[in-house]
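Retro notes, item 3 of 5
We never archived the inputs for the zinc ion complex last cycle. Fixing that now. Sequence and ligand:
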Amino acid sequence: MYTSSHKEWAMSIEGVYDRLAYHGESEFLSIQIADTIRRLPPPAASFTLDRCCFVSVGSVTAGLILPGRIGVHHIEKRSRNMWIIVLKEDLPAEHVHSIIAHEIAHAWLQHDRLSDTMPEDCEIAAANLVKQWGFSGRGADADFCNR
Ligand SMILES: [Zn+2]
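Structure as it came back at the time:
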């Protein structure tokens, strides 16, 4: 568990952008994703940069296509244990970090929504983890997420 000490830790913004896999068109969202990753405890930040890629769809476009290779790690060429995190581009500014962290938490907790082994309390577990990581807002609010 990471308490106050992790807040002093922050990966450089360049370090995050070098490794961040974001496939979308929103500069706002790419900045928010990078900021969220920098606020995560180090193991969760590394996990996110190594195992997650981010996709977003906004109101500018009705849809988009992406090649299946986005789910393959760009350096290690591995697709096992990779997570594709899909985000809305117009997330409310006051909640955007906690919502992004919430989706990262689902990946961290291996909540595979296509499997039949999703724990019933997955929303509560994800929200509580986000809170433990030091975020506040909708994504860290177990009551809100479990409605
Ligand atoms: Zn959730």
